[in-house]
Amino acid sequence: MTFHVLISDPLSEEGIYPLRQANGINIVMETDLTPEQLGERIEGFDALLVRSQTQVTRELIEKASNLKIIGRAGVGVDNIDLEAATEHGIIVVNAPDGNTNSAAEHTMAMLMSMARKIPQAFHALRNQNWDRKSYVGVELKNKTLGVVGFGRIGQEVAARAKGQRMNVIAYDPFLTAEKAEKLGVDFGSVEDVLKVADFVTVHTPLLKETKHLINKEAFEIMKDGVQIINCARGGIIDENALYDAVKSGKVAGAALDVFEQEPMVDFRLLDLPEIIATPHLGASTFEAQESVAVDVSMDVVSYFTTGTVRNSVNLPSVPKEIMKKIEPYFDLSERLGAFLTDLTGVAAEEVNIRYAGDLANMEVGPLTRNMLKGLLKRHLGKQVNDVNAMYIANQKGIVVNEQKTTEAKGFTSLITVEVKTAQGTRKAAGTLMNGQGARIVKVDDYLVDVVPEGHLLFVRHNDRPGVIGRVGTLLGQENVNIATMQVGRSNAGGDAIMMLSIDRPAEAGSLEQLAKLEEIQGVTPINL
């Protein structure tokens, strides 16, 4: 099978070398397409590789009926409609490590250039103006750098700032006191950081929560004479508020590599001599551009060859060693979902998944998504996959809960799925038998031992002599061969179930006749 990859932004040959070397991958590089042309071209491609130029909109995604993966050669994915990609089951991968060093170095270059007014002084010299008095700067030593966003790049910037003997205080929602102490920085809230910093640098993604995070109110709580750096994403800083803060003297300088609109259309910020700027050069080194392209190319190859990726943006990644342990349970979890969909016959309102035994100590998110895929595919078809299963469940109003316990009741690991519907609650539990594969070992409160594959009949009946024989006789008359049978009961003479594995699906007429037999309470066909 050949997979077709479209590259719509310039990537170096070295960067796409993994794609060139892989078998069964056809590469098309067209980097000068208009949005309209890209929309006409995208049909039939399995993968799309972009940088920041191409806008991967919902409209484009809806035209890409064959698209399976989008690779962003860089960190930020604000040019990709993640919700639309997730909704359509398309994995989005990026390169979170590839330009970390480049971005951190550019941030420090901007910081030092701003502190010492190097661009302004150079511009004066270019105009044959030797002026030393106007360009007196400030030292970094003993100043406080406030870092808002303490991920990979934020931490690299902090390490470099400490090398300049600066004090560092950081904010990040995932930063703890222990981690801050280990990294040799102080930490606090955004307000704490802004109040004490002499220099503020932002390194957050652009989200609804971070848009205009640095606004008029934020500037008001900063020190007089503070200096600002943004080499992260345009829009984190409110540019109008920044303009006013510089004009008022509150902000002594700003260094900007990114802007709310790119290419930049409103240049009034650059009319202010206190502001220096570059045209989004944070990742613009030969090394970084090659590295990010290699990273996403390798993920695309990995996806087409093994079905796994390292740096998914919309699908949580799982360490390789954990994935190896949970992978044998993928098929079981999906079949449990499909089994319960057939068993209930109506839409789920709530799903509770309980992982017991060894699985309780592992990352089981992929198994939950696989189970939901099996649960939803019966009604929604092939549009449901690992990427969008949780999203679709949320859209449908299905409450999904995970529970873990080390007690597995005699099994090494056990997955129990409970589905609540308007008609009641049904349960099924499954495990992997050593050397024998997957088994369903419990349905509702009945113990069974059923291989979850092929054509099954779930029969509810009263536990009376002769019932099993009558079921077998009727199916024989209908030329339906029984491969295996499992019987479970609550107590002698009470309610009971039969789980029959049959060689071919039973016709509707046969099911109606079964349901009419004495002591039979219901018959449900299940196809796995």
TrEMBL record:
Signal peptide (residue range): none
Coiled coil: none
Pathway, per record: Amino-acid biosynthesis; L-serine biosynthesis; L-serine from 3-phospho-D-glycerate: step 1/3
CDD domains: ACT_3PGDH-xct, PGDH_4
SUPFAM superfamilies assigned to the protein according to its UniProt record, in alphabetical order: ACT-like, Formate/glycerate dehydrogenase catalytic domain-like, NAD(P)-binding Rossmann-fold domains, Serine metabolism enzymes domain
Domain of life: Bacteria
EC number: 1.1.1.95
Catalysed transformations (reactions): (R)-2-hydroxyglutarate + NAD(+) = 2-oxoglutarate + NADH + H(+); (2R)-3-phosphoglycerate + NAD(+) = 3-phosphooxypyruvate + NADH + H(+)
InterPro entries in the record: ACT-like_dom_sf (IPR045865), ACT_dom (IPR002912), ASB_dom_sf (IPR029009), D-isomer_2_OHA_DH_cat_dom (IPR006139), D-isomer_DH_CS (IPR029753), D-isomer_DH_CS1 (IPR029752), D-isomer_DH_NAD-bd (IPR006140), NAD(P)-bd_dom_sf (IPR036291)
Record-linked Pfam families: 2-Hacid_dh (PF00389), 2-Hacid_dh_C (PF02826), ACT (PF01842), PGDH_inter (PF19304)
PROSITE patterns assigned to the protein according to its UniProt record, in alphabetical order: ACT (PS51671), D_2_HYDROXYACID_DH_1 (PS00065), D_2_HYDROXYACID_DH_2 (PS00670)
PANTHER family referenced in this protein's UniProt entry, alphabetically: FORMATE DEHYDROGENASE 1 (PTHR42938:SF9)
UniProt record similarity statement: Belongs to the D-isomer specific 2-hydroxyacid dehydrogenase family.
Annotated function: Catalyzes the reversible oxidation of 3-phospho-D-glycerate to 3-phosphonooxypyruvate, the first step of the phosphorylated L-serine biosynthesis pathway. Also catalyzes the reversible oxidation of 2-hydroxyglutarate to 2-oxoglutarate.
Name under which the protein is recorded: D-3-phosphoglycerate dehydrogenase
